[in-house]
Design brief:
The protein is an alpha/beta fold. It folds into two domains: 212 residues, Rossmann fold, CATH 3.40.50; 77 residues, Alpha-Beta Plaits (2-Layer Sandwich). 36% of the residues lie in helices and 29% in strands. The strands form three sheets. A six-stranded mixed β-sheet has the order 5-6-7-3-8-9, sandwiched between helices. Helix 6 links the parallel strand 6 and strand 7. The longest helix is centred in the middle third of the chain and has 17 residues. It is globular.
């Protein structure tokens, strides 16, 4: 299978500081990926290198099998929607869509207009007059209607209310089903997008700490709650990611797939078992180095 993106020991350094530290990963066609991590983890730096806005310090980077720098054939197949996108002051919404149509070989004009109505965007309004949410909606429309083989959304939801964010997720899934392509979502609202993600990359301090199928990653963590002594007994010998207590009650999050006999033992102890959300799992993973190593195993 041809890879959409391939990184080998990719590094971006600024003096002594490594924003991206020897990252190796591959991105396959027609999947939705989550590029996740705390602020400053290296996510935006990677996206800027993929789109030829930054040069790597060392390592290899291939997009559609080629280097993206000064490569119109590669860059024309990428749509990168940034949360900080700037527009000329005289541009209207219609002007942005016209430019996108010119630069996107797979542009679907009818779909763009349909999305404009769904997000209630006034085509003739100048971009400088739009609210933060409306600006985000313009980027979402361009990203979806471009139908680019590699579409990257960097924090696409800023300023959007819950209804508009839900509309974006629904439209993305609908159009992805009809027109498969590779999508990378970089976002802090992990729980909201978790149902979309098929594969997860988690960065921490410039390093890739998780590269795993989203469902498999979720299956590796669990939460348990009940009497403190019972929780301690159940978690004995297990890898604990987080532990909290209040009076005689306690909760704990652990790593490891539970077997039927584990669930039976929990029931005998009067404990409640629950899954750990993807967002909470990533919080635990990036909390300290010991947690990170536990999940990497």
């Amino acid at each position: 299978m041809n890879q959409i993106v391939e990184l080998k020991r990719l590094t971006k350094a600024y003096g002594e500081f490594k924003a991206v530290d020897e990252i190796s990963l591959t991105i396959e066609p027609n999947k939705i990926y989550g590029l996740l991590g705390r602020n400053g983890a290296g996510k935006t730096t990677i996206m800027h290198m993929l789109t030829a806005q930054l040069f790597p310090t060392s390592g290899e980077l291939r997009v559609f099998g080629e280097e993206p720098y000064e490569n119109a054939g590669v860059l024309s197949r990428i749509c990168f929607i940034k949360e900080s996108q700037k527009y000329p002051e005289t541009y209207r919404v219609q002007d942005v869509l016209d430019i996108a149509a010119y630069t996107s070989p797979n542009w679907d004009r009818e779909y763009a207009l349909e999305l404009t109505e769904a997000f209630r965007l006034p085509l003739k309004r100048k971009m400088k007059k739009l609210s933060r949410g409306m600006l985000s909606s313009v980027g979402i429309i361009v990203g979806l209607a471009s139908r680019a083989p590699l579409t990257i959304f960097d924090e696409p939801y800023l300023g959007l209310d819950a209804v508009a964010r839900s509309l974006f997720y629904d439209k993305l899934l609908e159009d992805y089903a009809e027109h498969p392509r590779t999508v990378i979502l970089s976002t802090h609202l992990i729980d909201e997008v978790s149902r979309l993600l098929e594969h997860v990359f988690v960065l921490d301090s410039g390093k890739l700490i998780i590269d795993e199928d989203a469902d498999a990653l979720r299956d590796r963590a669990f939460a348990v709650a009940g009497q403190s002594a019972a929780v301690e007994a159940f978690m004995a010998g297990r890898t604990v990611l987080n532990r909290e207590s209040l009076g005689g009650l306690a909760t704990a999050a652990g790593i490891g797939r539970l077997k039927p006999e584990d669930r039976k033992y929990a029931a005998e102890l009067g404990l409640e078992l629950a899954p750990v959300s993807l967002q909470q799992l990533i919080v635990y993973m990036t909390k300290n180095e010991s947690n990170r190593k536990a999940v990497e195993v």
